[in-house]
Amino acid sequence: MSVADTLAEDMIAGGDPSWLLRETGYELLRESTFETRFALSNGFLGVRGGLASHLGACRAVPPRIYVAGLFDTPTPDSVVPELVPAPDWTQVRILLPDGPLMRCPDRSSRALTLDMRRGALFMEARQTCNAPLDVCLRSLRLVSLHARAIGMQVIELRIESGVSDLTFEAAFGPTDFELAPERAELDLKAWRTWRSGRSLAIAAAASLEVDGIERQPVMRGDLTWNWSWTAQPGQIVTFRRIIAVTRHHATDVHAGARARKELAAARTLGWRGILARHEAAWAERWRCSDIRVTGDAAAQAALRFAIYHLNGAANPEDPHVSVAARALTGDDYRGHVFWDTEIFLVPFYALTWPEAARTLLMYRFRTLDAARAKAAQMGCRGALYAWESADSGSEVTPAQTVGPDRKILDVLCGSQEQHISADVAYAVWQYWQATEDEAFLQEAGAEIILETARFWTWRAAPEADGRRHIRTVIGPDEYHEGVDDNAFTNGMARWTIARGLDVAALVQARWPETWARLARSLDLGEPELAHWREAAEAIATGFDPATGLFEQFAGFSALETVDLNAYAGRSVPMDVVLGRERTQRAQVIKQADVVALLALLPEAFPGASGGTNFDHYEPRCGHGSSLSRAMHGLAAARLGRAEAALSYFRRSAAIDLADTHVAIGGGIHVAALGGVWMIAILGFAGLSLRADGLAFDPCLPADWQSLDFRVRWRGRDLAVAIDGTTRVLRVALDRGAPMTVFAGGAAFVIAMDRPLTVEGVGG
């Protein structure tokens, strides 16, 4: 049985729809949406997928192929690096004597199916309209999660009627002059980037069988194959191609040898072995990260889609790269890394795939010197991370952009959106809380937190009023630039300094030799730590005890109030509706700002002030960012407002799953997908990390009959089940030493032979 047959049986003949994403028909205007939604990735290789992209004659633009870390500046005078598209290794042409075979396929027969459980993309189409041959075409595509250098493609043609000469051509697409060729042989090509000196090598093998008998190509070239024969009714034609890709951070004469070695290992396995190991790798990822919801099929499908893309976005083997804002699924934001990774993605990885979380944070450690250099340019000590980061960690935010009115606008985020340094520290601490990875803390994590705490101590300048102020910043609400004492920035800065003091005390107590090394290399001693304590206490918060409100930034409450309900149904962001100048003078928020602080640091909101701030700022938010609704959903769930949180959950999922967001063609919104997971687990399940265990405070939506999931905590595997109908929480320890779980206001010790059942939770 062919691979196409195997997958067709499982995916089309009764497959569980919650594991499948399927589109039928073909619409040219929606093709970029399909290419994003059906993208494949393993954290190293990314391939956009679409209905037409499987049929070379039908596509106007080849699908984008990405290799993580392959950055270059597009022109000699450019200073902003971009992720360079790699050659299209999926390209084929199937030709009749008078033109392409599939020039007139039956549009209604076209179906694209993404099997998220297996990480495989399957397409089928038929040609029946006045052509010499009636043909059914099926194809499979994957990028291996087991061996990330490997990609595989299988195409099957069934000749149903007709006789004709047929030619099958397999080649590699052009690189749009973005890569300089360095080496070309029958089974291998190598390139380098024009300016950054990165090396890329691809080795490939291809075969074609007719009725199970392999045919030799009539023509060979550099990574090209050409077969010709006379097609007869009943023939089954199977084409298989395996590719191996290697990337190197400098021009490398051994790049080709490494690609060939990877390819040889894959060919030894064969396509069935490649598929089996790939499926096993995905099965393990799903074992650790799947979420099961009963009572809400749409939520189940949304969670599976989110987790599929999250699992495909990271590569725990490569600390030279991180997850970009669109992962490896599109060109938006040039492949740059933002705060999205640390705030919206690391929670998922830390609790389901800590090896991936560690690698993402090691990327930040590897770029720590660049963060130090940026802080020094401001006259500060410590580390200020780049708002947009590529491979080196240097600031790569573009200096200017084109606004909606086609005017050139200065981009100030690179210099003013500084909360990124607190966001990185937050992720490091969250990873430490989830894993207690002592080696990481000693080797990298402590230094990151200490250097970011040092930065905020220098950045928060003391003034005559006795407080420390952080002036001229941009908070998450990017509609307002150059503001003073942004509540999110100041709150996260205070938190970071406090964690710096905690880390210093912890390392001194547990690993005095490590502390001696850090103190010496960082020139950090007790006098400076005392200075940190004073700074953390003195940073202005903007909190008004009389109202219970945090002012978003100094002067925000004096700005014009705008009723956003009057603009319901708009299709563009509020800064386009009102104009940039009026928006800056108004209480119109781009995305969660104070609400984001509430979601991340609920303990910073005394008494009932959490709900007070949510109620105040929610109606002022225009949700001009894909990140915004997830933060609102998490905050709402933690406040016990499950139905409001569910609304935000659905709208966050819809960004990529529904055709409601104009930017989906540029890649998936991976942070919004991370936010979907956060709402479900940190929100509805009420999971929170404590120094001494895990805590649960469930609050399920009314339609969710149950929620089941797994998490990893400090070397332990836990299975969690929440019954929304009976309000029962069950926690089982499948692996690891006994631990403490908090639920219903009480502490419980669980062990592998002693699971926990708590009644009356989630009210």
From TrEMBL:
<dbReference type="InterPro" id="IPR012341">
    <property type="entry name" value="6hp_glycosidase-like_sf"/>
</dbReference>
<dbReference type="InterPro" id="IPR005194">
    <property type="entry name" value="Glyco_hydro_65_C"/>
</dbReference>
<feature type="domain" description="Glycoside hydrolase family 65 N-terminal">
    <location>
        <begin position="23"/>
        <end position="246"/>
    </location>
</feature>
<feature type="active site" description="Proton donor">
    <location>
        <position position="478"/>
    </location>
</feature>
<feature type="binding site">
    <location>
        <begin position="339"/>
        <end position="340"/>
    </location>
    <ligand>
        <name>substrate</name>
    </ligand>
</feature>
<dbReference type="Pfam" id="PF03636">
    <property type="entry name" value="Glyco_hydro_65N"/>
</dbReference>
<protein>
    <submittedName>
        <fullName>Glycosyl hydrolase YcjT</fullName>
        <ecNumber>2.4.1.230</ecNumber>
    </submittedName>
</protein>
<comment type="similarity">
    <text>Belongs to the glycosyl hydrolase 65 family.</text>
</comment>
<dbReference type="GO" id="GO:0030246">
    <property type="term" value="F:carbohydrate binding"/>
</dbReference>
<dbReference type="InterPro" id="IPR008928">
    <property type="entry name" value="6-hairpin_glycosidase_sf"/>
</dbReference>
<feature type="domain" description="Glycoside hydrolase family 65 C-terminal">
    <location>
        <begin position="688"/>
        <end position="748"/>
    </location>
</feature>
<dbReference type="GO" id="GO:0005975">
    <property type="term" value="P:carbohydrate metabolic process"/>
</dbReference>
<dbReference type="InterPro" id="IPR005196">
    <property type="entry name" value="Glyco_hydro_65_N"/>
</dbReference>
<feature type="binding site">
    <location>
        <begin position="590"/>
        <end position="591"/>
    </location>
    <ligand>
        <name>substrate</name>
    </ligand>
</feature>
<dbReference type="GO" id="GO:0033831">
    <property type="term" value="F:kojibiose phosphorylase activity"/>
</dbReference>
<feature type="domain" description="Glycoside hydrolase family 65 central catalytic">
    <location>
        <begin position="304"/>
        <end position="678"/>
    </location>
</feature>
<keyword id="KW-0328">Glycosyltransferase</keyword>
<keyword id="KW-0808">Transferase</keyword>
<dbReference type="Pfam" id="PF03633">
    <property type="entry name" value="Glyco_hydro_65C"/>
</dbReference>
<dbReference type="InterPro" id="IPR005195">
    <property type="entry name" value="Glyco_hydro_65_M"/>
</dbReference>
<dbReference type="Pfam" id="PF03632">
    <property type="entry name" value="Glyco_hydro_65m"/>
</dbReference>
<dbReference type="GO" id="GO:0004553">
    <property type="term" value="F:hydrolase activity, hydrolyzing O-glycosyl compounds"/>
</dbReference>
<keyword id="KW-0378">Hydrolase</keyword>
<dbReference type="InterPro" id="IPR017045">
    <property type="entry name" value="Malt_Pase/Glycosyl_Hdrlase"/>
</dbReference>
<dbReference type="InterPro" id="IPR037018">
    <property type="entry name" value="GH65_N"/>
</dbReference>
<dbReference type="InterPro" id="IPR011013">
    <property type="entry name" value="Gal_mutarotase_sf_dom"/>
</dbReference>
